Amino acid sequence: MTEYKLHESISRGARAEALLQNDLLQEAFVRLEQDYVEAWRVSPARDTDGRERLWQAVNVVAKVRDHIVKVVNDGKLSQRHLDELTRRTRRRP
């Protein structure tokens, strides 16, 4: 990975971490999941299409959260790679 790409990944990771620390976004994740689960609980058992869509919605919320966590982790990994490149460069005579 080029140094530019590493810096880009680090920057994205920092922005993603800020999102994960954002109270409003966290509240939205929790609220959406609660609302979808509650709607599923009160839906008629015969409404299989509606229940399936609600199940998918719960999973989409989780996938969005997981993607943001992945970007954070990618940024941290890129920072370690960049740090290692910097150490190697400094060691060269």
Care to count the β-strands? 0
Whole-number mean pLDDT: 96
Please mark out the parts with pLDDT under 50 across 5 or more consecutive residues, or reply none: none
Global morphology: elongated
- What's the structural domain tally? 1
Largest sheet: none
From the N-terminal CA to the C-terminal CA, the straight-line distance is 24 Å
Helical content class: over 70%
Give a verbal description of the structure.
With 93 residues, this protein is mainly α. 88% of the residues lie in helices and 0% in strands. It has one domain. The radius of gyration is 20 Å and the shape is elongated.
Draw up the topology in text.
Layout: H1 3-20, H2 23-42, H3 48-91
Helix pairs in contact: 1-3, 2-3
Key traits:
elongated
Please summarize what this structure is:
This protein has 93 residues and is mainly alpha-helical. It has helices spanning 3-20, 23-42, 48-91.
